[in-house]
Amino acid sequence: MKRGELLGSLEYIILLALMRLGDNAHGMIVRREIEERIGRNISIGAVYATLERLEAKGYVSSFTGEPTPERGGRAKRLFRVEAAGKRALQTSEQTIRSMTVGIKDRWGTA
Amino acid sequence: MRRCSPPAFACWFLESVLPNPYREAVLGDLIEEYKLRIESTSRFTASRWFWSQTCRSVPSIVWSSIRSGNWLISMSIAMGVYIFMGTLKFAADLMLSKLFSSQQMTHVILPPIVFLTTTAIGGCAAARLRRGATTFLALMVMITVAILIDLKVCSVAVPWWYQFGFLALGPLAVVVTPTLFERLKQRGTVT
């Protein structure tokens, strides 16, 4: 496995949230999904900074939506997971699985 | 009807600080969520949430922008505008010193006017070229004024608040003028 193929924890969580939400999810929806599912209150800035990093790696792509009055006339930036992103998710998941084989019971008793 | 516009200062702060690719998306998302929250909670709670998101978002976005190298372009633009501002101020000072002979006029009354005008022009120019450049420009102006105060370049005796006025109002003019100008433009008062 090449170095850099493994996702960081926030990258992993955000990619999973994007997978759950399907195509055309924007930052605030991703933030809300993470808050609802794992109770982690992350800032919208951290979400966008991570999405930007994922886009630079080619794991997600983005496009600009239409401006709406609810958003003060500002356009949404919508994201979708690309094939490379799906592969990165698989690799990370397999790595975690391989590393946890046989040791799960150890932290269960802590 | 409940007033549902988010804290104006927080919006202005985000608009001034966030680099171009993030500004529209982050501000739009925050405004949308704020409007949803104000329906279910109090205005105070929603505003507090907006402020907390603002304060927590800026460091991560600015850091990400620095890491991706965007800051280098912004800094280069700020440097260019800074040189332009310096040239403009030098030319204005030279012209005014020829027009007015009174030392009080050329050393005390006119300098703040020239300084604020050039910093405001510089701020607008930087914002027009690249929004993030205004932050760097404001920082450069602040450092320059601080150095000049330390070097005691003012040949006429002036009170302390006069010099510190330059230190506070200079960077403020760089950051605030483009935003004010943009708002006026949006309202259609400037054509």
What do you see in this structure?
The complex is a heterodimer of chains A (110) and B (191). The model of chain A has no long low-confidence stretch (mean pLDDT 88). Helices cover 55% and strands 11% of the residues of chain A. Chain A has one domain (9-100): Arc Repressor Mutant, subunit A, CATH 1.10.10. Chain A is elongated, with a radius of gyration of 16 Å. Chain A has helices at 9-21, 27-38, 44-56, 83-100, 104-108, and strands at residues 25-26, 60-64, 77-81. The longest helix of chain A is centred in the last third of the chain and has 18 residues, at 83-100. Chain A is mostly helical and 110 residues long. Chain B has 7 helices and no strands. Chain B has helices at residues 8-17, 20-40, 43-67, 70-99, 103-129, 133-151, 160-186. Chain B has 2 domains: 8-67, no CATH class; 70-186, no CATH class. Chain B has 191 residues and is mostly helical. Chain B is elongated. In chain B, helix 4 crosses helix 6 (133-151) and helix 5 runs parallel beside helix 7 (160-186). The model of chain B has no long low-confidence stretch (mean pLDDT 83). The interface between A and B is medium-sized, with 23 and 23 residues.
Question: Any key phrases for this structure?
Answer:
heterodimer; A: 110 residues; Arc Repressor Mutant, subunit A; elongated; B: 191 residues; mainly alpha; 83% helix; 0% strand
Q: Structural class per helix/strand content of chain B?
A: mainly alpha
- Mean pLDDT across all amino acids of chain B: 83
Number of strands of chain A: 3
Largest binding interface between chains: A-B, 23 and 23 residues
Strand arrangement within the widest β-sheet of chain A reads: 1-3-2
**Structural domain count of chain A:** 1
Low-confidence stretches of chain B: none
Shape designation of chain B = elongated
Oligomerization: heterodimer
Radius of gyration of chain B: 20 Å
Q: Strand share of the residues of chain B?
A: under 5%
Helix count of chain A?
Answer: 5
H/E topology pattern of chain B? HHHHHHH
Report the helical percentage of chain A: 55-70%
